[in-house]
């Protein structure tokens, strides 16, 4: 079983339903059963329209299920307006919660996705999440290192300029399935658990007026 927690890139948006988004397609390519949690506009901190972050999505939609072989946590796109210290705290807390519930599950973090050119803050988010992944001993995959637009921009990017088309999702799925199948990718082995961070502060841990992907 392959589980995901993510934002609108993971669950699909616009003309791309959940069953055709890259998460579901990745599972198909790997011959795995997908279970996909999360919602558009959400992140490690941002609660978006549904009023929940990744930790809440994990707890409500996934944590009560049997442990999967792999859990992919994919996001960060909607967290770029938060500071990196509080983002690292939230990401660490989610990983600790997952490990406590499913100690044998392999956890993979996928950084923020930008199909076209990413803003500078996206790289700050990427770096913060990569730091947490290294500290917690889980694999980190970086979509910002990839070139997703190789021809006609409209082939892989919807008119909103943010979300992938079906072809864009298929490209993401091929990339992710190859990386997940790579036997050399690190897994979440035993690691020393650092001091838990202070609680994340803020009204509902959301950004007033901000609705991301």
TrEMBL record:
One Pfam match: Lipase_GDSL_2
SGNH hydrolase-type esterase domain boundaries: 4-171
Aminoacyl-tRNA synthetase recorded as keyword: no
Database matches in CDD domains: SGNH_hydrolase (cd00229)
UniProt keyword annotation of DNA repair present: no
Gene Ontology MF: a single term: hydrolase activity
Highest taxon above the source species: Bacteria
Disordered: region residues: 183-213
Keywords: Hydrolase
Protein name per Swiss-Prot or TrEMBL: SGNH/GDSL hydrolase family protein
Naturally occurring in which organism (per UniProt): Nonomuraea longicatena
Lineage per the UniProt record: Bacteria, Bacillati, Actinomycetota, Actinomycetes, Streptosporangiales
């Amino acid at each position: 079983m392959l589980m995901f927690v993510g934002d609108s890139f993971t669950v699909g948006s616009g003309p791309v339903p959940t069953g055709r988004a890259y998460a579901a397609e990745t599972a198909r390519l790997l011959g795995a059963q997908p279970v996909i949690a999360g919602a558009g506009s959400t992140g490690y901190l941002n609660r978006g329209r549904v009023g929940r972050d990744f930790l809440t999505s994990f707890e409500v939609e996934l944590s009560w299920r049997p442990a999967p072989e792999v859990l992919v946590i994919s996001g960060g796109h909607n967290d770029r307006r938060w500071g990196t210290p509080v983002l690292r705290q939230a990401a660490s807390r989610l990983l600790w919660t997952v490990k406590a519930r499913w100690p044998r599950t392999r956890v993979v973090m996928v950084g923020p996705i930008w199909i076209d050119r990413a803003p500078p803050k996206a790289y700050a988010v990427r770096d913060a999440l990569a730091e947490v992944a290294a500290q917690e001993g889980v694999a980190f995959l970086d979509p910002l290192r990839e070139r997703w637009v190789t021809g006609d921009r409209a082939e892989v990017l919807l008119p909103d300029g943010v979300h992938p088309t079906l072809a864009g999702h298929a490209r993401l799925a091929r990339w992710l399935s190859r990386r997940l199948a790579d036997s050399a990718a690190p897994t979440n082995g035993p690691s020393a658990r650092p001091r838990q961070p202070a609680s994340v502060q803020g009204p509902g841990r959301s950004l007033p007026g901000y609705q991301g992907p």
